[in-house]
Amino acid sequence: MHYAELPMPSGLNLLVAAVWTLDAGDDAGGWIEHVATPDGCIEVIARTRGRSAWRRDQPGLFVTGLSSKPIRFGFSGDAAFVAIKLWPWAWEVLGGFPCPAFADDWVGLADDHALAPIVTGDVSGIPASLSALFAGREPPPIAQAILEARSVAGIGANSGLGPRALQRWFAAHIGLPPRSYLKLLRFRESLRDLPGQTSLAGHAAEHGYADQAHMARDFRALAGGPPHEVRKRAHGPFL
After folding, report:
1. Dmax over Cα atoms in the chain, in whole Å?
2. Over 60: is that where the pLDDT of 36 sits?
3. Is there a contact between 162 and 156 (Cβ–Cβ < 8 Å)?
4. In terms of Cα–Cα distance, which of 147, 124, 112, 121 is closest to 12?
């Protein structure tokens, strides 16, 4: 199984989290059970080969909603995917329906959606195509405050929104409370940076956890195991 991410233009940082590909191999008769960790993103996914299922069989083009827990899904041994990982507000910038409408689920994506020809086209051209698509489309002002904050108070201080206004914004656009969403972002960064780290205690401190035990609890809840085990079997956000 091969997982890879494409380098993205820095100008898309507040809109696109990643573009990834996953190739299971070539065993058409096999079936692979997999786990995707929650990371606070919407994913527009094109399956270019094989079959896949999460709760029900999936079409060749679909978008997954936000989840606050690990997602167990399966795909055929010959499956291959290309995906664009968006921050939730970027999905709405492109006219997508609000994230709470399809939380912990997926919906098929219409062929005439603006992202459809991009995710199904030449993979190497996706970054440039995304730059062109988002040209002139700005994320909401709160986006940078969310991605740079380590606490709900930090989001409020950097966005100018009070606690109730933050709660309302997250309920309408994210579908999770601010604290729960920040927990996903902290876990995402911690998992992403985990390979190559030698000190888990130091890693926990660097990523805003109170201590190593705090990080271990999040990993068990969001990845189903302790950090040292997750580190061995992770392929990007997939376990």
Report:
1. 55
2. yes
3. yes
4. 147
Q: How many CA atoms lie within 13 A of 45 on its CB side?
A: 24
Nearest partner of 103 among 181, 167, 174, judged by Cα: 174
Which residue has tokens 């100018």? 160
pTM for the model: 0.91
Q: DSSP for 157-216?
A: HHH---HHHHHHHHHHHTSS-HHHHHHHHHHHHHHHH-TT-S-HHHHHHHTT-SSHHHHH
At residue 188, what is the residue type? R
225 with 120, same domain: the answer is: no
* Residue 194 clears pLDDT 90, i.e. is over it: no
Query: Is the model's pLDDT at 226 over the cut of 80?
Result: yes
Among 103, 134, 165, the domain-final residue is 134
Q: Would the pLDDT of 110 be above 70?
A: yes
Q: Domain containing 200: what range? A: 142-233
Residue type, 105: D
C-alpha span between 181 and 187 (Å, rounded): 10
